Amino acid sequence: MLPEVTAIIQARMASTRLPGKVLMEVMGRPLLSYQIERLRFSKMIGKIIIATTAKKEDDAIVELCQKEDIVSYRGSEDDVLDRYYQAAKKYKANHIMRLTGDCPLLDPLVCEQVVEKYFNSNVDFVHTGSTFAEGVDSEVFSFKALEKAWNSARLRSEREHCTLYLHNHPEIFQKITLQNKTDDKMYRFCVDQHKDFLVVSAVMEQLYRGNKVHFMTCDIKAFLDSHLDIYRLNANIVRNEGLVRSLQEDKNFV
């Protein structure tokens, strides 16, 4: 049996492009609730932690955690690396899966692939590559690697994006980029803008059949392939737009 992996989902109500997105509702339920439900289908995830901020507006996220019977941690809004580190330390997580709260259609099978690669390869860090659809991204790393990054990262971008220091220092961390069997980079089912929400809402309203049965990436792709009007709604949005912005801000402060 593989060791337990703790999933930490970063989530907050503040968002430049779509405020309150993690608690926007589809069929009467918040998006974050769907994400938690889908993650629970993965047999390789033990504890789930929601890492949010201490701001008053994020009380609603903590209340959702209580309803979902999962724990939460409240920390820095901008220093996400510190938020992850403190959450992992508090709950004694040795192996951590990082997820973002704007991915309600995560695929539990992809999560399991990342975990298996991580343990079978004995590396510090495994993450999904660009051949996966945006919205099923996941990363697994050791607490030791997280602690090293927490102690060493100085760039604003490396504090805001908690695994960027690991990416930036291959001389320190052993890393594997897991590539998909098919090239799905043209698909986008995360929720960062209103157009994304329209796509995800359409997918859920068509494919969701209750918490006993879950649909996979192949089902979502098939739906979008047969509904090109919906697929095209967010097809031109730049991938990882927040990271691109952070890297530019680093240059501005040099």
Verbal overview:
The protein has 254 residues and is an alpha/beta fold. The chain has a single domain (5-252), classed as Spore Coat Polysaccharide Biosynthesis Protein SpsA, Chain A (Alpha-Beta Complex), CATH 3.90.550.10. 41% of the residues lie in helices and 17% in strands. It is built from 11 helices and 9 strands. The protein has helices at residues 31-40, 59-68, 80-90, 108-121, 143-152, 156-160, 164-168, 194-207, 217-225, 228-231, 241-252, and strands spanning 5-10, 25-26, 29-30, 45-53, 71-75, 95-100, 125-128, 139-142, 175-178. Strands 5-4-1-6-8-7-9 form a 7-stranded mixed sheet. The protein has a two-stranded antiparallel ribbon with strand order 2-3. The protein is globular. The protein starts with a strand and ends with a helix. The mean pLDDT is 93.
CATH architecture: Alpha-Beta Complex
CATH topology name: Spore Coat Polysaccharide Biosynthesis Protein SpsA, Chain A
Shape: globular
Number of domains: 1
